[in-house]
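Example (one chain per record):
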Amino acid sequence: MRGIKFVRALGGCLAAAAVFMAVAASAATETIDDMWGGRRTFAAALSADQQTTLTDSNGTGTVKIEFDIASKTITWDVTYQGLTSRPTAVRLHGPAQPYTNGGPIIDLGVGGLGSPIQGSVAIAAGHVQYLLLGWTYVSIATERYPGGEIRGKVDVVPPPELTRQRSNTQ
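Predicted structure:
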């Protein structure tokens, strides 16, 4: 009889712990989502060093991507300078690990290829997952390097509130 009471008590404690952890996780998620404000920001630094094939380029660039959670839309701003020839394509690629190739997901240069390149488009849920997991990169192809002259891995940018909290705890 004593063993049955112990098992029931243990079961009750485990159930209470599970409920507590679920509530705590939910509260933490809401806090983080509040910090993000319904948007996720991603960024990349473009250079020839990140290409999978050797390019003789001093070109550089930056990418900023904003994902609006409610509308499932991304907005981008791509800048570049110092390319060896005229750009022919600017694309978001994935899924791909660093220094591997992925297929093109979104043509970022549909509105023109002059720097800065800006635009917006609805994005598929699977592609959002690639962004969140860090499995995407932006590549700029040129006349001289049709496979890509410069590229950069796209990473999530933490919200300022989270960055401040982290620096205050160190």
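Caption: The beta strands are 39-47, 60-68, 73-81, 87-93, 104-107, 117-122, 136-142, 150-157.
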